[in-house]
Amino acid sequence: MSVDKLTQVLEAERNSQEMSEQLPFHYVEISRLLFDHAHDDIPDAYMVRSLIEDIRDVRFHKVETDLEAFNGRTIAVKIKNLSAMEVNIVRPFIGRALQAFYKHDSPELIPDPERVPDRRPQVVQNAPRRQLRR
Question: Where is the GINS subunit domain (predicted)?
Answer without folding.
Answer: 1-95
